[in-house]
Design brief:
Layout: H1 2-37, H2 42-58, H3 62-83, H4 102-115, H5 124-141, H6 145-158, H7 163-175, H8 179-189, H9 193-209, H10 219-225
Helix pairs in contact: 2-3, 4-5, 5-6, 6-7, 7-8, 7-9, 8-9
Length: about 240
Amino acid sequence: MARNKKSVLSVKWVRYLLMALGLGLIITISELLYRSRQPNQPNFIADVYLSLAQKSVAKEDLEGSLNNLNKATKYYLKENNLLFGGILPKNPAQPLLDTLNEATKQEVFALLQAKIPKAGEEENKLIISNIYYNLGLILFLRNYSGISFDFFQTSTYLDPENGFLYIELVNAYLYDGYLDKAISVLEQCRQFRPPRAQCETFLKINIPARDFGSVGEFKEVIEKHQGFGQDNASTYAH
């Protein structure tokens, strides 16, 4: 009888524990859903997905890392739209692993391993902007320029007052002969006060003269601005 009573008590405690865990999970999910619908809370959801991206990196899961990074970025872009009056797109560049060769995948993952763990040390949006900028750089220099542009562009959406990000994208477009797209990027840059003069100068002087720099020319400046120091700035010079 004593053993039966202990067994019954053990089963009850297990049930109570499972109920408590289930209730905690429901409350957590409800909180996330509530916050995701609030206009001033996208940053909270973004940080959750960024934390998941960190865990995916630790597990050496490239696909999971990129997918969670992409989800985090959507919410950081949503936050930036609130900050800048809704003039920025809400969708980031999409991971396209199936189109990449193995060497490029390895370089992409090495970048994520180096950068994603930095989350929390600096402003997370700047870290993600830096990751997208470097993804664009890797793809461009490995002859995936057609998909690199969207990653460069996403980096500008996340850090829209950093003029050097726009110039890097402009140089990439000009390198591939896309003059109209380069001009469009400069016009977008002019909507933001800190980089406006920089982009207007490029538009008035460099564009008519067809004078553009190398892609990766401003990597060191961008790394410092976004909290990474030099970070092997010469690695991706083109």
